[in-house]
Specification:
- By secondary structure, the protein is an all-alpha fold.
- The chain folds into two domains: about 60 residues; about 90 residues, no CATH class.
- The protein is built from six helices and no strands.
- Helix 2 runs antiparallel to helix 3 and helix 2 runs parallel beside helix 4.
- The longest helix is centred in the N-terminal third of the chain and has 62 residues.
- Keywords: Membrane, Transmembrane, Transmembrane helix.
Length: about 160
């Protein structure tokens, strides 16, 4: 081999050696970054699992709390239905109490709505009874409404 060919061959061998070394360094760096990413992903997974568990515990507490059911029962007819569904999975006396109270008030409102003059008076009386009931529910007290609250508890004890 001539000197030019030998120098070219040596240069080519050096280049290949440098390329191999560079590829090895790049591979090591990629492996290190992949390992770091894997650890970050595991940590993120643990944090996400913990947050999901905390959320589930909070949701269970909200749905099992009779006070929330009692308050929701006061919010329109749809709220009353939602309260029944929430209370059916985990019955609480507090939730059931206000579901019965609101059912009684709604029935009285429907019945008295057909009587012209009494209608206006009863709507005002029912509004006051509803406000007092909401305040008691917010305060965590089981106070029957001043109209027929005790009777509502007897009449609708199946709820």
């Amino acid at each position: 081999m001539s000197d030019d060919n030998k120098n070219l061959s040596d240069d080519l061998d050096d280049m290949i050696g440098d390329a191999k070394e560079g590829a090895k360094k790049a591979g090591d760096k990629i492996s290190q970054k992949a390992s770091e990413f894997s650890e970050d992903a595991k940590e993120f997974g643990r944090d996400a699992k913990e947050a999901a568990s905390e959320f589930a515990d909070d949701a269970k507490q909200v749905f099992s709390d009779g006070k929330n059911v009692g308050i929701i029962a006061h919010m329109t007819f749809i709220g009353w239905i939602i309260a029944i569904v929430m209370n059916s999975s985990n019955k609480t006396e507090f939730g059931s109490f206000y579901i019965r109270q609101m059912l009684g008030l709604v029935i009285i409102a429907i019945v008295t709505s057909w009587i012209p003059i009494i209608n206006l008076i009863m709507w005002l009386v029912l509004l006051v009874a509803w406000i007092m009931s909401v305040i008691a529910a917010l305060g965590g007290e089981m106070k029957p409404t001043f109209l027929f609250g005790k009777q509502f508890q007897e009449w609708f004890k199946g709820l």
